[in-house]
Amino acid sequence: MDHVVWWQVYPLGFLGAEKELASVRGGLNRLPRLRGWLDHLISWGGNGLLLGPIFTSASHGYDTEDYFQIDPRLGDGADFDGLVAACRDKGVRLLLDGVFNHAGRSFPPVAQALAEGPGSAAEEWVARLYDTDGVITADYFEGHDSLITLNHRTARVQEFVREVMLHWLRRGIDGWRLDAAYAVPAEFWAAVLPDVRREFPDAWFVGEMIHGDYVDYVQRSGLDSVTEYELWWAIWSSIDSINFHELEWTLGRHAGFVEDFLPLTFLSNHDVTRVASRIRDDRHWSHAVALLCFLPGVPSVYYGDEFGLEAIKEDRPHGDDAVRPEMPPERGLFDHSHPEV
After folding, report:
1. ∠ at Cα 273 (209, 339), nearest 5°?
2. 277, 312 Cβ separation under 8 angstroms
3. Strand partners, 70
4. Residues 181-196 pLDDT 10s
5. Alpha-carbon distance 130 to 138, whole Å?
6. Radius of gyration for the chain, computed over Cα atoms and rounded to the nearest angstrom
């Protein structure tokens, strides 16, 4: 981790997958197209591929249906194995996105719990079930009724997540990005990770943290790292407004973080407006890049930022689409009308 620079890719967008799984008939084998971009990743100094969700899901990837199968919109197990082999051949580390805070309504244990209600044999899988005059509901992640919060207190959920992690590590990945870790009790990871680390002591685990006590969470959970949203905000906000008091304060906190762990640092990702659209004066884009690359941390470059792509996330259905664009099969076919950052 002293040398890795991640290239974050949201596969469903990057590969132009359909928005809904229900519209797909048969596998589409898009995943091999990622191999055509590995030389590009290496060309600008990257050596790690951080993939967004690739498991079977109903729509955007974060409503998982099957944690052991590749989404048919992307390909199949053979396509995945081919990608792993290509990454290993080129010395590229591979990180997968583990959505373990919540699951989709069609994830079999969740579907059973929602069908049968309180008292169901599957009730232990979900955080809480409600029966209101025959209408069965559950705890939804941040109000999204397609995302059912799992019950992280039960041994069954802990065992299942451990099985998923080990399955894909045995298939050749190097670690996990843990989605919405800020919503998961730190004690859950502390229960899950020791057995995983015994078999894969070099695996790396980074949790998505937006707010909260970063150092305390890392220490109690046993994770290696968390995403540093504080620094992301301070970099673009201070540069765009030419007001560096916020950045100065944040860098003081950052210096404290790196005494305990190396945070995952970034300028853009699949959930936020691109940095080139945040910093309105393009003369200052390179200053943001300098901070990402020179500050201690584990840097991550979101695909397209290396070309200076601009896109704004909007608060509406499909408001993420602009920041998750499709890319061609290889770099040589990309429209270079945007200057490289």
Report:
1. 125
2. yes
3. 55
4. 999 999 999 999 999 9
5. 6
6. 20
